[in-house]
Amino acid sequence: xxxxxxxxxxxxxxxxxxxxxxxxxxxxxxxxxxxxxxxxxxxxxxxxxxxxxxxxxxxxxxxxxxxxxxxxxxxxxxxxxxxxxxxxxxxxxxxxxxxxxxxxxxxxxxxxxxxxxxxxxxxxxxxxxxxxxxxxxxxxxxxxxxxxxxxxxxxxxxxxxxxxxxxxxxxxxxxxxxxxxxxxxxxxxxxxxxxxxxxxxxxxxxxxxxxxxxxxxxxxxxxxxxxxxxxxxxxxxxxxxxxxxxxxxxxxxx
Length: 254
Ligand code: FE
Prior knowledge:
alpha/beta, Metallo-beta-lactamase, Chain A, 7-stranded mixed sheet, 13 strands, globular, binds fe (iii) ion
């Protein structure tokens, strides 16, 4: 597991823990935000990265304590190891109110179950030290109960599966057009509809975003890259837009 510091100023740090090559498991990024003496981990991942991610987080936090575990949605690469995080830290875990009763199927100990907290559909603010992180609605992108996190200090927008790329070896997107083939198929199939993408992009345009950091693959740094991403995503047809007549009883093969 390697660490990239995305932002480090006046006691506020944003660190990417990236991890490549876990066999069958999809590559995933874990993000850590530390402000003063409090930290939060975003989409901490499943069992394959748990030990390494927990160790790296503890080391980076130093004397600071982990206050929040943010779960953008309910997928296994995000929540599977949440019990371990709850058992070994005093942090609260936050996920959509739609998923609070489902996540315990990954195994959440009774002792820590009350620290798995619901986020209402409209989103919320999470205090971190004397700063405040913004939990933004991103429903149907791709999960029906889905949130992103905006850090107004570093101006990093953490977008979970939105903006994800598969099979790239760079940490930052160097060339948007050359990067498109690594995102397109995933977004067309996993994201629900262009209507949801457009609504999301309109919301994001109200914010001052310096970087978009997804949970898989490379991140988008700088205003120009962020704009390119918003323009691309607003025009992308996906999910129900492109399903066509996909619902048919399948033909028998062979
Ligand atoms: Fe997902």
